[in-house]
Amino acid sequence: MTVFLCDGECEYSYDDLLRHLNQDNYFPLLKTHHLFSYFGNLVKALTNDVPLVLLDSDLSPAELDGVDESLVNQSIPLSVKRLPSMGEVIEALVHSTSEITMFTSGTTGQPKKVVHSIQTLTRSVRRGEKYNNQIWAYAYNPTHMAGLQVFFQAFENLNTLINVFNRTRSEIFNLIKKHSITHISATPTFYRLLLPYERAYSSVIRLTLGGEKSDGHLYNVIRQIFPSAQINNVYASTEAGSLFAAKGENFQIPASIHDMFQVVDDELLIHRSLLGQSDSFRFDGDYYHSGDLIEWINREEGVFKFKSRKNELINVGGYKVNPGEVENVLNAIKGIRQSLVFGKANSVLGNILCAEVQLEEGVRLSELEIRRILKDSLQDFKIPRRIRFVESFSLTRTGKLKRL
């Protein structure tokens, strides 16, 4: 039977999963580090049409807004559907009537609850013979939208998942080589942590980036590491699930849902019919403010690129600075693996621009050298006044850079 999941030294087949699904209990609120138990509980809930709350393994009681902590990790009896084959499991899953509750990542405050159906969670899943025999690197937190998108795409085609989330650079490359991984979906931060280029891995035939703004320099470097891979970019959110994909930096709104979007003051607004359900949503008529600022490339054809998150713009002496723009220029400097740009309060300017920079191993760069390079590409007010070198960055639960 096909391997379902490789997680560290443990390997589980789809037969193992089928046996797990036939056990007569489930956890409505499961908090665990054990990926097989988590996925088994998820599939069991969906195939038996019962509700489920997805909890991060490190959620604190203070973050469990509206959740009864005493019910966490408490199993309840369940008269499970006896499904003799994985084909029948998948069919039961895609027709599930379960409500799946998840939490936003909490990067801008208290995590908010959002309730989804299987239809919104699997909107982007593609099934068919050409999707058989794929081997996926699992590089996301499984309780958040991007992790669920990868899981459902792999699971509904009986593919193999290799857990690489929170692994080191050398461990990830070893797993890619050992398992001949063919597909990777991850944040730009994940791919930057794989730099610099040392050798190519030709087994990978498709890469997807999502969750953060990416840039042309990153595409060029990962093309060297994965020369056989087609590179796509995907837009998904906890509120809406997966909406559209891109090749390169430009996204295109599908014609079938073109009328479900508006752009007001450069902000992308999404029609309520594409969203899950949440008491925290605030609508402008029938539209939800995504907080994503975009720039039209071709308005008539619905082609655009992302500029930044609205709440990330930094006021520097009356100028609005997009930290992502500055990070793109920093990350393009040879020897810089990753950077983080942020504002620090200043009584005169409102904020001064600061940057933290992680260098590749063995590279030496001074603050003065970096500023000299930046002057060729950026206006003076966009050049950080303070640059600090760091060994690593803090990441959010979803594997993105944690902004200060």
Describe this structure in words.
GO terms for molecular function: medium-chain fatty acid-CoA ligase activity. Residues 102-246 form the AMP-dependent synthetase/ligase domain. Residues 325-400 form the AMP-binding enzyme C-terminal domain. One of its GO terms (biological process) is fatty acid metabolic process. Pfam families: AMP-binding (PF00501), AMP-binding_C (PF13193). By secondary structure, the protein is of the alpha/beta class. The protein folds into three domains: 3-232, ANL, N-terminal domain (Rossmann fold, 3-Layer(aba) Sandwich), CATH 3.40.50.12780; 249-310, no CATH class; 313-389, GMP Synthetase, Chain A, domain 3, CATH 3.30.300. 22% of the residues lie in helices and 30% in strands. The protein contains ten helices and 25 strands. The chain has helices spanning 14-21, 35-47, 86-94, 118-121, 145-155, 169-179, 188-192, 216-225, 323-331, 367-374, and strands spanning 3-7, 10-13, 25-26, 29-30, 52-54, 76-77, 100-103, 113-116, 135-138, 160-163, 183-186, 206-210, 230-237, 241-247, 250-252, 261-264, 267-271, 283-284, 287-298, 303-309, 314-316, 319-321, 336-346, 350-359, 386-389. The strands form five sheets. Strands 1, 2, 9, 10, 11, 12, 13, 14, 15, 16, 17, 18, 19 and 20 form a 14-stranded mixed sheet that branches. Helix 7 (188-192) links the parallel strand 11 and strand 12. The radius of gyration is 22 Å and the shape is globular. The termini are far apart.
